[in-house]
Amino acid sequence: MFYVFTKKMLGKNRTRQVLLFLWILSLGLVRGQVSYSIPEEMPKGSFVGNIAQDLGLDLKRLNTGKARIYTGDDTEHISLNKDRGVLSIKERIDREALCEQTTPCALHFQIMLENPLEFYTVTVEVTDINDNPPVFRQSEMKFEINELAQTGSRFVLERANDEDVGVNGLQSYTLNPTDHFVLQLYSDPEGNKNVEMVLQKSLDREINDNLSLMLTALDGGEPQMSGTMQIQITVLDANDNAPVCSQSVYKAVVSENSPPGTILTTVSASDADQGLHGMVSYSISTKGANSMFDIDSREGVVKLIGSIDYEKQKYYQLNIQARDHGGHADVCKVMISVNDINDNKPVINIMSKSKEISEDSEKETAVAILSVQDPDSGENGKVQCFINDNIPFSLKSTSSNFFSLVTDNELDRERQKDYNITVTCTDEGVPSLSNSVTLSLHISDVNDNAPVFEKGSYEASILENNSPGLSIFAIRAQDADWNQNARISYMLEESTINGVSVSAYVSVNADNGVINALRSFDYEQIKDVQFYVKAQDGGSPPRSSNASVRIIIQDQNDNAPQMLYPVHTGSSLVAEMVPRSADVGYLVTKVVAVDVDSGQNAWLSYKLQKTTERALFEVGAQNGEIRTIRQINDKDAVKQKISVVVEDNGQPPRSATVNVNVIVADSFPDVLSEFSDFTHDKEYNDNLTFYLVLALAVVSFLFIVSIIAIFSVKCYRWRRERMCYKSNGHLPVIPYYPPLYADAGGTGTLQHVYNYEVCRTTDSRKSDLKNMRPCSQSIISLNTTGTLTLPHAHREKLIIEDSDDQVS
Ligand SMILES: *[C@@H]1O[C@H](CO)[C@@H](O)[C@H](O)[C@H]1NC(C)=O
Ligand SMILES: *[C@@H]1O[C@H](CO)[C@@H](O)[C@H](O)[C@H]1NC(C)=O
Ligand SMILES: *[C@@H]1O[C@H](CO)[C@@H](O)[C@H](O)[C@H]1NC(C)=O
C-alpha cells in the first residue's frame, strides 16, 4: 500500500490529512488502493472505474458496509454506486480548476466501509484536454511610436495565458502583418516566456500613421486553439519633411502701373508633416523685393505693393521661402514679367541748335540736331517726328532717333525774321503719346536790300529870294534790312547846273534827308534845280539807290515894270504930235513896258495917272495904247502931258510911271514954235540915230567878249576842279521878255524901235539892272579845306561877298 499525496493535500489540508492518515494507520484498517485515470471534463455519470471488481469486494459487503467516499473536504467530483460497485462522475471535473498548472493532477479519496471498518484508497488521475485557448488579458494594446524610432527598438507585449498544460499550453505567437515589426520570444529568469515586438523597418508617419497588428498566441493542442490581441500603433509625427513647392517655377505677368494690391500669383508648398511641423509660412527672400511685392505668409498670395515700371525693370525673380515651424524650408521661384504700357512720352533732346542763321544761308543748312527717345518698347517706343507746316524748314532723320532740322527753302529776313519751329514727336502706342519742343530761330540780316525812295522823283517848289540855309523839304528812303544795313545816309550826286556844281546850290542832310537851299535863288536867273540824291545804307558792301529831285523856284514880284517906250532921258523931252484934226480914236502913241517877273507878276496894266484935259486921251489898260477919245478943239492946250502908270499884277503890285508929252498941232512949224523951249531935245533927236548905231556896235562887241569870257571861265573852272567858286561877273544879263510883251506889240512898226531901246537900256540904265540880283551876289560857302562838302558846309563857312564892280 502507498499513498500519493497531492501537492494540494500536502499543502492545503496537510495538517488534517496527516492526522487522518495517522488515525487510519493506527487502526491498521487500510486494506488496499486503486488508481484510475480519466480525462477532465467528463460528463456527469461517466464511468470512472469498477472498484468492486478492482478491490475485490463483494457487492453485499458494499451495501452492508455502507460504503461511502471520503474526501476529507466537501468537494465530491466522483460518486460511488454501491449496488454496482462502480465510480462515476458526480460533478464535472476541470483539471485547471483542480490542479492549475500542476501535473499530474489526481483526485485522492477513500472509500470507507463499516462493520468492519475498512479503508480503500482511490486515486483518480485527471488528464488534461485542450479545453482552454491562449488568452490575452486585454484585447488591444496601444503604442505611440515616433516615426523616427530606431530599428531594433523593442516593445514588450503582453503575454497570453493558456491554462492548459503541456502540449495544450501556450506554444507560440504570430504577428501579422510583419512589415515593420518582428516578434521575439525570450524567457525571463523565472522561466516565463515573454514576447517582444522589434522594429525592423523604420516607420513613416507620412506613409502610414496608423498601424494595426494582430498578435496571435497558439497552443499545441489538438485541435489547436489560439488567442488574439490587436496592437494599435500610432506613428507619431516628427518634423522629417520639408515643405515642397507645388511648382518649381511660378510664372506671372503684370502690366506696368498696375495698382498696388494686384494679385500676381499664389504660391503653395505642402509639408507632409503634421501640425506645426506641417504648417508652412511664406516669405520673400529676394533682397530688395520686399518694397515691391508682398506675400501673404499663410496663403502664399503674392501681391504687388509697389509701383511697377516696365522701363525700370522688365522681369522680377522672387525667391519665396516656404518654411515649416520646425525649420525646414523650400524655395519656390516666381518669375514675374512686366508688360509694357505706353506711359512714356517721347523725350526730345536738343543736342545742338543755332539761335540764328543768316538769311543767305544755303539750302540744307542745319539749324538743330535733335535726339528723340521713347523709353517704352515695341510700338509704344516707335517715334515719328514732324514740324509745323508752312515754314521753310524740314526735318530729316539722320539715323534712328536722330533728326536734323534743316532749311529747305530760301530765307528772307525781310519777310519773316523769327520762326518758332515746333517739333512734335508721336509714338505709335495706343493711345499714342506725343511731345513737342519749340525752337525759336532768328534770321540774321544780310545787306540784300537797297534803300528805296518813297518816290522815284521828287518835286518841290520854293519862292525865290529865300534865305540861304532854308530847308526846303525832306526826302526819305526806306531800307528793308536791319540795323546797320538799314542805316541810310543821303548824299548829293555830283552834277552841275549852269556850270556850277549842284553842291553850291543845295545840301542834303546825310541823316534825315532834309534838303537845304544854300543860297538865295533868283527866279529870273534860274527856274529850277535838278539833281540826284543818293541814299546809301551802312552795309558792307553798301547798297544805294538814287532819286531825282527837282526844286522849282517860284517867282516873286520883286521886279517893277520897266518902261521901254517912251524913254526918258534926263534932259531931253520926247513929244508925240497929234494933228488937231485927229479923229476920235487916233493912236497917239503906245506905252511899252516889260516886267522881268513872270505870270501875274508880269501881267501889266496901264492907266492914266493924270491928264491936263481930262477927257481927251485914254490909255488901253491892256496894250498901253494912248488914243484920243474926242475931237480936239481949240480950247485944248497945245502941250499935253500924260502920266501913264504901269502896274503889274503881283502881290503887292509894283508900278512905274512914265510921262508922255503930246503936242497938238496942225503942222510941223507949229510944233517947232510950240516947242521952242525944247531945243536941246532937238539936238538930242539929231544925235539919236548916231547913238543908236554906236550902241548897237558896242552891244555886239560886248556880246562877243562875253561869249569868249564864258568859254574861258569854263575852262578855268574845269582845271581848278571847283576849288574855288567865283562869281562869274561876266555873265550876260539877258532880260526876260514875258510872253505878254509879244502880245503887246500891236503895231509891228514899233517893234524894231523897242528892240533897239532894249539894247540901249541894257547899256545905259545901270541903276535898274542893279536891282536884279545875279548869282554872283549870292552867298556861297567854302569849307576851310577847300573841298566843297555840302552836309557840313553851313557849319564853318567863309562868306565871300562879291564886289559890285564885277557886275557888267
Ligand atoms: C487607426 O485605425 C483604426 C482601425 O483601422 C481606427 O479605428 C483608428 O481611428 C485609426 N486611428 C487613426 C489615428 O487614424
Ligand atoms: C514765337 O514765340 C514767342 C513766344 O511764345 C512769341 O512771342 C513770338 O511772337 C513767336 N514768334 C512767331 C514768329 O510766331
Ligand atoms: C541812278 O541810279 C540808276 C540805277 O539805279 C543809274 O542808272 C543812274 O545812273 C543813277 N543816276 C545817278 C545820277 O547816279
Automatic annotation (TrEMBL):
GO BP terms: anatomical structure morphogenesis; homophilic cell adhesion via plasma membrane adhesion molecules
Domain Cadherin, chain residue ranges per copy: 30-136, 137-245, 246-348, 349-453, 454-563, 578-675
Keyword tRNA processing assigned: no
Membrane topology designation: Single-pass type I membrane protein
Record has Magnesium as a keyword: no
Residues of the signal peptide: 1-32
Annotated SMART domains: CA (SM00112)
CDD domains (alphabetical): Cadherin_repeat
GO MF annotation list: calcium ion binding
Keywords, in A-Z order: Calcium, Cell adhesion, Cell membrane, Glycoprotein, Membrane, Repeat, Signal, Transmembrane, Transmembrane helix
Membrane-spanning segments: 688-713
Annotated localization: Cell membrane
Primary localization: membrane
GO cellular component, one term: plasma membrane
Known function: Potential calcium-dependent cell-adhesion protein. May be involved in the establishment and maintenance of specific neuronal connections in the brain.
Record-given protein name: Protocadherin beta-16-like
Gene: LOC105902857
